[in-house]
Design a protein that fits this description.
Blueprint (H helix, E strand, L loop, with lengths): L14 E2 L2 E2 L2 H8 L2 H20 L3 E2 L1 H5 L2 E2 L2 E6 L2 E4 L11 H6 L6 H7 L3 H7 L3 E5 L23 H30 L1
Parallel strand pairs: 3-7
Antiparallel strand pairs: 1-2, 4-5, 5-6, 6-7
The protein binds protoporphyrin IX containing FE.
The site of protoporphyrin IX containing FE (HEM) has 20 residues, from helix 4, helix 5 and helix 6.
InterPro entries: Cyt_B5-like_heme/steroid-bd (IPR001199), Cyt_B5-like_heme/steroid_sf (IPR036400), Cyt_B5_heme-BS (IPR018506), Cytochrome_b5 (IPR050668)
Family: Belongs to the cytochrome b5 family.
Subcellular location: Membrane
């Protein structure tokens, strides 16, 4: 018969992607067959809990964490608290800070992060983003074309001058000729 044992010390610190962390807990549990079975069920419960009940954060809440000492990022619908990673990020803390207050997925993907960088993210995962609270991306709107200007005054004036100026020159030429002939 199975002897059920409870491991309160395991609570909240056992699972990250099916890998157990915490040596004490692992040692204690694997010492006995009963314990191992219990551990499996504990892990299953924890895994189910984690999978079915991630914390949902609103965009507004996440956006408030926008400092070096308190920095949350939204990447691919997930929320990461990268505060402990600020000093160690190979790309520097400034790019991480610049990724706050928005969906940083494109920033993250544009860099072409390695698989090990992606594995690392699990460490900082703190929940999902409530997508309905994320403001729509600002899309480029073509500026309205300047309305057609029906006022053709300058063009009209130029056309008249183009016609009048040669006439004036011609008139002047005739006048000069006329007066010089008289002399
Ligand atoms: C949880 C989030 C993040 C993690 C765990 C992470 C991790 C890493 C790691 C491990 C590298 C080294 C290269 C590699 O292995 O790919 C790296 C490089 C880099 N990261 Fe991140 N990163 C994160 C978010 C971001 C974000 C949001 C940006 C914004 C643009 C960014 C920008 C960069 C840049 C520019 C480099 C290149 C550094 C270089 O090669 O000169 N990272 N990141």
């Amino acid at each position: 018969m199975l002897k059920r044992k409870i491991y309160p010390e395991l609570e909240g610190k056992i699972l990250i992607n099916s890998k157990m962390i915490g040596n004490n807990a692992l040692g204690e549990v694997t010492n006995g067959v009963d314990g191992a079975i219990e551990l499996v069920s504990l892990l299953q419960v924890a895994a189910t809990d984690m999978a079915s009940d991630p914390k949902i954060h609103s965009f507004e809440e996440v956006s408030k964490h926008n400092q070096t000492k308190d920095c949350w990022l939204i990447i691919s619908g997930k929320v990461y608290d990268v505060t402990p990673f600020m000093d160690d990020h190979p790309g520097g803390d400034e790019v991480l800070l610049a990724g706050t207050g928005k969906d940083a997925t494109n920033d993250f993907e544009d860099v072409g992060h390695s698989d090990s960088a992606r594995d690392m993210m699990e460490k900082y995962y703190i929940g999902e983003i409530d997508t309905s609270t994320v403001p729509l991306k600002r899309t480029f709107v073509m500026p309205q074309q300047a309305p057609y200007n029906p006022d053709k005054t300058p063009e009209f004036l130029i056309k008249i001058l183009q016609f009048l100026v040669p006439l004036l020159i011609l008139g002047l030429a005739f006048a000069v000729r006329y007066f010089t002939k008289k002399d």
